Amino acid sequence: MSVSRPSAVQVGNQIRWRDGLHIIVGIFGGLVRLRDVVGQDVEVLVGTLLSDPTFQVVTGGDPRIPLAPAGLIDDLPEEAVTRARWWEEHIVEVLRGYGIDAEPEQEPRPEYDPHTTSLRQRELAKVAELAELGQPVALSTFQRLRHKYAARGL
C-alpha cells in the first residue's frame, strides 16, 4: 500500500511553525525535517506539525511525492545513497527551480525558473549542465529518473 504525504506537507514548502519560518527539506516515514533560517534542522512528527495551531504553509512545495517506507535507504551501501541524493538534488532543481539546500529567499537560476521556462526546457538545461560537468546523461534517462522520483520519492 502506498502512503502519500498530506497535501499540506510537501518538500519545499516554506512554513510558519512555533516561533519562526522553516522550509520542509525532507519527509521520512512519519517525520518531517524542517530547516530554519539559520540552517538548523529539526525533525517533528507529521501529526504533531499538522495539529499545532501555529502551523501555516507560507509557500508551496514540490508536486506530491509518495513516501518511501521508513528506513528504506538505510540498508543501502553509502555510495548508493550518496548517488541517489546527488540525483535527487538535480531532479528537485528541475522540478521547483532550486535545490534542496537552497535558502528560502533564493531565486531560481534563470534556466530552471518554473515561472519562465517549461519543464522540457528545464530538463534540457539540466542534461546540458550535467554534460558540462562530465556527467553526461540522455534526456530520456533523466526523464525516467524524474518520473520515478515523482512516483516514489528517493
Structural commentary:
- The chain is of the alpha+beta class and 154 residues long.
- The protein folds into two domains: 1-70; 72-152, no CATH class.
- Helix content is 34%, strand content 18%.
- It has four helices and five strands.
- It has helices at residues 46-51, 78-96, 119-132, 139-152; strands at residues 14-17, 20-28, 31-36, 41-45, 56-59.
- It has a five-stranded antiparallel beta sheet.
- A hairpin with a 2-residue loop joins strand 1 (14-17) and strand 2 (20-28).
- It is globular, with a radius of gyration of 16 Å.
- The model is unreliable at 1-6 and 62-70 (pLDDT under 50).
- This is Transposase.
Task: Name a few traits of the molecule.
alpha+beta; Transposase; 154 residues; disordered N terminus; single chain
